[in-house]
Write a sequence for this structure.
DNA sequence: TAGTGATGGCTAA
DNA sequence: TAGCCCTCACTAC
C-alpha cells in the first residue's frame, strides 16, 4: 500500500530496528549484489522519507534510495537468531542480531551520493508529512497549470506522497471537481486540501492504513490523542497493521455504488493511466 | 487453483 | 506509449 504514509512508517520501523547499529547488507536475489557490498557492515545513521522515496543514510555518506513502486514490499521483523530463510525475490536484506528487513519487488533500489539525494528531493513537490514542507510551492505549480487538479495531485513534482486513494478521497472531502484545471483552483481551496492532508496522512502512518471517512477519522484522532494508537510498537514487532479500521472509503473503488452523501452512482474513468473515482453531483463547481 | 488488478514511476522507444 | 518490477489480496472457476 505504498502511498507516502507507508514510506514514512517504514522509515520509522527501519530506525527502530537498525539505527546506530552495524547492519549486514546482502542481496539474496543477486540483482543488488554490488550495492549491497557497498553498504555491508556499515552503521545506519538515519532513515527518512520524502513522498514515496525512502532514503537511508549509512556512515561514510552512502545513501540507500528505495522506491517501492506499485508492488514493492519492505518487511521489517524481529527474528530469534540463526538462519532466516529467504522467501520470494528478496532484492535487499538488512540484518542485525535482532531484526531482519527484506525488500521485494521495488522499482528503485540503489546506493547514491548525497548529491544525488539532493537531486531527487529537488524534483519532488512538498510532502504533507514533512515539517519542512511548503504548500505554496505546490500552489504555485497548480495555479499555473491547465492540467486537471486530479492529475496535479498525483504528480510527485507538484505534491509528494499522495497517491490514487488520498487523491480521490481528498477531492471528494472538499467537493472539488477532479477535472477542474489547476489554474481555476482557488488558493483557499488548495489550502483546505493541504491542511486536510496534513491531518489525514499522519493517521495513515500511525495506523498503517488510509483513513478518510469522517467517523473513522474522528476515532483515529481520538486514539492518537489518548495515546492508544500504539501502531509504532506493533509495526516494529511485525504485527499486522491496517486492521484497526474497516476498509471503507467515500469513493475509492466504489464504481457503480451509490455516493455515501447524495446517493448518485459513483463514476470512474481512466485519467493519466490511473482510475479516477468521483461523484458527479457532489463534486461540481469547485 | 489460476487469473487479475493495483495504493507507481522509471526507462526505452 | 509499453515494458518492467514480480507482490499480494481478491475473484472466478
Amino acid at each position: 500500500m505504498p502511498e507516502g504514509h507507508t514510506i514514512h512508517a517504514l522509515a520509522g520501523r527501519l530506525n527502530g530496528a537498525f539505527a546506530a547499529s552495524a547492519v549486514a547488507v546482502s542481496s539474496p536475489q543477486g540483482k543488488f549484489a554490488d550495492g549491497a557490498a557497498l553498504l555491508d557492515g556499515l552503521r545506519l545513521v538515519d532513515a527518512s522519507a520524502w513522498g514515496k522515496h525512502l532514503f537511508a543514510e549509512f556512515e561514510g555518506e552512502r545513501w540507500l534510495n528505495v522506491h517501492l513502486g506499485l508492488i514493492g514490499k519492505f518487511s521489517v521483523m524481529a527474528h530469534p537468531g540463526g538462519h532466516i530463510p529467504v522467501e520470494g525475490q528478496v532484492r535487499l536484506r538488512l540484518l542485525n542480531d535482532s531484526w531482519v528487513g527484506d525488500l521485494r519487488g521495488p522499482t528503485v533500489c540503489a546506493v547514491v551520493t548525497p548529491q544525488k539525494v539532493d537531486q531527487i528531493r529537488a524534483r519532488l513537490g512538498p510532502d504533507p508529512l514533512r515539517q519542512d514542507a511548503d504548500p505554496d510551492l505546490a500552489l504555485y505549480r497548480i495555479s499555473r497549470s491547465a492540467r486537471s487538479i486530479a492529475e496535479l495531485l498525483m504528480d510527485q513534482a507538484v505534491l509528494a506522497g499522495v497517491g490514487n486513494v488520498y487523491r480521490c478521497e481528498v477531492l471528494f472531502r472538499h467537493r472539488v471537481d477532479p477535472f477542474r484545471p489547476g489554474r481555476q483552483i482557488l488558493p483557499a481551496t488548495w489550502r483546505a486540501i493541504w491542511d486536510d492532508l496534513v491531518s489525514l496522512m499522519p493517521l495513515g502512518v500511525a495506523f498503517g492504513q488510509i483513513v478518510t471517512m469522517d467517523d473513522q477519522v474522528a476515532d483515529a484522532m481520538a486514539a492518537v490523542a489518548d495515546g492508544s494508537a500504539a501502531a509504532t510498537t506493533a509495526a516494529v514487532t511485525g504485527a499486522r497493521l491496517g486492521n484497526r479500521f474497516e476498509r471503507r472509503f467515500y469513493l475509492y473503488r466504489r464504481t457503480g455504488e451509490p455516493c455515501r452523501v447524495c446517493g448518485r452512482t459513483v463514476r470512474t474513468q481512466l485519467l493519466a493511466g490511473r482510475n479516477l473515482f468521483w461523484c458527479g453531483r457532489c463534486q461540481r463547481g469547485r
Residues 1-3, 6, 52, 67-72, 107-108, 154, 156, 163-166, 210, 252-253, 273-275 of chain A lie near DNA strand B (CB under 10 Å from a C1').
